[in-house]
Amino acid sequence: QVQLVESGGGLVQAGDSLRLSCAASIPAFGTYAMGWFRQTPGKEREFVAAISRGGSITYYSDPVKDRFTVSRNNALKSAYLQMRSLKPEDTADYYCAARLGEARATLPYDYWGQGTQVTVSS
After folding, report:
1. Beta-carbon neighbour count of residue 118 at 10 Å?
2. Which residues pair with 111 in a beta bridge?
3. Side-chain half-sphere of 24: how many Cα atoms within 13 Å?
C-alpha cells in the first residue's frame, strides 16, 4: 500500500525556518517526481515546489522561490521542504505528493500525504 507521511509542521514566528519531511512507502521511489503543495481553508490547493526523480531539477512557485528548498533522498525514500524566512502568508496545510514520471508544477499527482499544518505568526 502506497503511503506518504508528512511531518515537521508546527507553529513558528515570522522569519523562522522549518523543515518538512515526507516519508514514502513507494516501490521504486526513484521513478517518482515529488511535489509539495499547500492549502488554506476556502482556497484551492497551491503548488509550492517539485523535484525530479533524480533530484537534479527543481521547480518553485514565485511566492516561495529564494526562500524554500526542495530536496530528496532516494535511498531513504524521503522528500524534504526546507522553509526559511517564513511569512504569515505561508500559513497553510502542506502536502507532499508523488507523480510517476516527470516533475510538474501542475496536477495531477498520483499519491498524496495527509498534510501537515504550518502556522506562521506575525
Report:
1. 21
2. 98
3. 27
User: How far is residue 31 CA from its own chain's centroid?
Assistant: 17
Alpha helices in 10-120 (DSSP H): none
Query: What pLDDT is stored for residue 2 in this prediction?
Result: 87
Angle at 49 between CA 71 and CA 102, to 5 degrees: 80
- Residue 71: pLDDT over 90: yes
CA distance 94 to 101: 22
Q: State how far the Cα of 92 lies from the Cα of 13, in Å rounded to an integer.
A: 14
Q: Give dist(CA 7, CA 115) in Å, integer.
A: 8
**What's the pLDDT band for 106 if we cut at 50, 70, 90?**
confident
